[in-house]
Amino acid sequence: MKIENPNPFQWHFAERASQMQSSFIREILKVTQQPEIISFAGGLPSPATFPVEIMKEAFDKVLSDSGKVALQYGPTDGYLPLRQWIADSLSTGGAKIVPEQVLMVSGSQQALDLLGKVLIDEGSKVLVETPSYLGALQAFSVYRPNFVSVDTDDDGLVPSSLHDVAAGARLLYALPNFQNPTGRTLSVARRHELVETCARLNLPLIEDDPYGALSYKGDPLPKMVAMNPDGVIYMGSFSKVLTPGIRLGYVVAPLAMVRRLELAKQAADLHTSQLTQMVVHHVIKDGFLEKHIPTIRTLYGDQCQVMLDAMAEHFPAGVSWTKPEGGMFIWVTLPKHINAMELLDEAIKQKVAFVPGSPFYANEPQTNTLRLSFVTVPPERIRAGVAILAKLIADRM
Ligand code: PMP
Q1: Aminotransferase class I/classII large domain: which residues (predicted)?
Q2: What domains, with CATH codes, occur in the chain?
């Protein structure tokens, strides 16, 4: 979606600025924030899960005990006790991650920009899943890469398909857990295969994992960074397990790489809020997330099931969808002739919104796909919204 009236003064913008596109999702969010709309469009976590009181107490405590430090400029790499906590939590299965490998960022979205800055030249080959996270495509696009799509199926990215496309690539961007947008999970066998393949090809593997903790049943699957800390760049976030408004994420990379990212961050914003990092550390240091995350998993898991049941009841034959085991999204594939963008126009008239799938494709969009999120919609409205969508789809069959 182009910016309206992009240049009323005829100023000479940089080439990259004239190419910038607003995220399609952010545009439809403007429409869907009207309360009468049943919105399956947002990727927002449910505010019902935000620990407001706990955050309030923590801000108070940090400001009372260490206000002068918390309100001062801080180091670019971040607040050491929090980096230590992150390094320890990722040191699983025999892997040893050290705090020096952890760079705190202002939301993991910033990590995408920094990675683009450090790894991508104009025309560089960048490997992405089909489909992939729109915000990553947007962040990398600024550096004008040549996106090459890697095949995916129900088990996520297909590692063997890398052989045909990896020559000369600067990075592979992968979303192993409850992928945005499809909700798919990369199988354990494929994680090992992917890590080995990337190591053999000397290809930096970016593991973007904001949803990893949100599995509905069972323990989260092993992280690729723990399989090979020297070959994987891991991105984590507090947005989906605590709150997104604090804008706190992290990137974990081999030492030589993290230093470059740190320099890029220095130029971008000096550092991420020291106050926020100290507050988050105070909140999580004694095991708060172990109690809190299960409440998010239950809420999202229950609402996902409501949506899946409603889809099974109402959607006509010929429509298929993913059955996520965690996270926030379901991906729907309509019969080939139905264009989800056109369906959205009709759906909005009937007060239901979703995100059409096309913007999630770096190349050759499949126009018959769409993403549904269920986390902020109560069960009754999920059922009502799915029934309306089903009717609109059936009318086009
Ligand atoms: N990666 C993925 C896959 C996401 O879905 C998001 C948020 N929607 C982000 C990164 C960015 O998250 P944040 O900046 O809030 O950490």
Answers
A1: 51-386
A2: 18-49+290-394 (3.90.1150.10), 72-286 (3.40.640.10)
